[in-house]
Amino acid sequence: MNRRIFFIVGPTASGKSELAAGVAQEFGAEIVSADAFQIYQGLDLLTAKPEVRTLRKVPHHLIGTMPLLEEMNVEKFRRAATRAIKEIHSRGKFAIVVGGSGLYVKALTHGLAPLPEFDPSLREKLNAMSLNELRSKLDRLDAEAARKIDMRNRRRLIRALEIFLLTGKPASAQRTWESASRSGAATCLFVFRDREELYARINARVEAMFQTGVIEEVQASGATGATSSQMIGLRQIRELLEGKMSILQCIGEIQQATRRYAKRQLTWFRRQSSFEPLNLSLFTHNEGVKWISQRARRSFALRND
Q: CA 20 to 30 Å from 5, out of 96, 113, 214, 222?
């Protein structure tokens, strides 16, 4: 089955969604998104969902399928993506997994040991704690997890504490990845661009978001859950709407936050030794589609007819 899955992963604004759609057309494949925020309904501009013309090229899965108030985690994604891939294969089609959420990708390439669902009463207690209190508690209960996760990410702090408090074992001991041989035949292509080009693309995309109505989109979005509220730019635009910052400051902060996110993505994917790198700065769009299609053809073990 794994020879019928091909992964195209990389940082935000690298152009992987458009490339993947072009490659999928070559094989009649279907795309499964591995993006932590594009999975949510609404906020299409803020989460940089693929354009309508891109979505129309081939079937896409796990884009805009989850309510904003619903919690999301790696295990939930793995189950949903596995179902989508099985359905694609049942139709005799190939699956191309596309995204930049590293843990979501790794959950599919390596498998993930199941973790406990959240407990509402415990979640309520943890949500009432300050960020410093959460950091201190995690450092005391699971020092290894505290070293590895982003200690500024409230959602991840709470989840790590939940795992320990619900199971009595540290999250660092439970999040074990299965053998990579589970998906050894699947190919993972890590696409990226030269830093200057990538950052310029990020800046331009944020500016385009504002030109096409992202402020109005956020204003009309309503309440968000603990996971979806972590979307880059959501806090800044809400503060803009409340008169707490200027539009130029808002745009600048979102551009900076997105560049930092891209840098973290690049670091994470470069550490995955089994991911084959490809610098898209060396190719035009059509050349990139052709090169990746050839690589996918070998992965799918297809003949050049």
A: 113
